[in-house]
Amino acid sequence: MVGEPSVAASGPHATWETAVSWLREQPGNEELVLAAYYDDPLLEAATRYWQSPEWAAVREYLPARPGTALDIGAGRGIASFALARDGFSVTALEPDPSDLVGAGAIRSLAGESGLSITVNQEHAELLPFADATFDVLIARAALHHARNLPAACREFYRVLKPGGRLLALREHVISTSRDLPIFLENHPLHRHYGGENAFRLTEYQSALTQAGLRIIATLAPFESPINLAPHTERSMQSELASRASLGLPGVRRVLESALSRPNIWRFVRFLLQCVDNRPGRLYSFVATRES
Fold first, then answer.
1. Digit-coded pLDDT (tens) for 16-55
2. What gap in Å lies between CA 287 and CA 87, rounded to an integer?
3. Are residues 147 and 56 part of one domain?
4. Which residues, 6+ apart, have CB-to-CB distance to 18 below 8 Å?
């Protein structure tokens, strides 16, 4: 996580580790655990992420030539692993010491994989790095945990090299303050730990731009495999066809075939984005510190 939980704990578990441990032990949660990469062996989970459509989409926004990278709120280290596998010199920023979901897990992953990943147990609001240190900053599901979002973004700007890129991935978005308790109530772990949060889209964008960063892309929920995961475009099309077919197999096949056509899928995706107001829906941001 980026900082300490933004919303006070409200459940029986004292730490994120115990909450995730509880989740893994509950019957019927296997798909959710796999989707969140909370499964073991960790090396297999990290390799699955590196091979995923999500990471393939992330890779399109990375520099062609690997350089130095900072993984902010690194969690178990799956993005650190993917960056290192792609040739980057990686530092993982993760304040939680946990051997399951924190710095301890990242160190184990680095040791088992033989990859060089430096682990730093600090918070994002005061980064322990010199100005203009990194070519790439990745924050996967991390900004919504920030104790002070504008301060964190100012630090991102400071440690990013001119011309470098920040990828803030899979951030929870709400439309109004009334959406936040709805999102928190529906989150599978928040009631057990209390560590989740979400911001308005404009809050993310303002924090980034006011820090001096220029936003290159704002990726909406249905716009990229980054936000769709664990769905892929194909599985999302299949689910939409199933819901619209009223249980008629022939209709479903016709709809799946139609949705697989690029022009039709772009139009449907546009319509979905126009009406999508789910509390906690996922957006991603790509920004740069200009030279």
1. 899 899 889 989 989 999 999 999 999 999 999 999 999 9
2. 21
3. yes
4. 193
Q: What is the extent of the structural domain holding 251?
A: 227-274
Model confidence band, residue 110 (pLDDT cutoffs 50, 70, 90): very high
Lookup: tokens for 286: 């790509």
At 261-281, the pLDDT tens digits run 999 999 999 999 889 899 999
Closest to 43 (Cα-Cα) out of 139, 97, 107: 107
**CA–CA gap between residue 163 and residue 63 (Å, rounded):** 10
Max distance between CA atoms of the chain, in angstroms, equals 61
Structure tokens belonging to residue 55? 């990471």
Q: Are residues 110 and 240 in the same domain?
A: no
User: Rounded CA gap, 261 and 267, in Å?
Assistant: 10
CA neighbor of 234 nearest in space, from 213, 265, 203: 265
Q: Token pair 């909370």 is at which residue?
A: 38
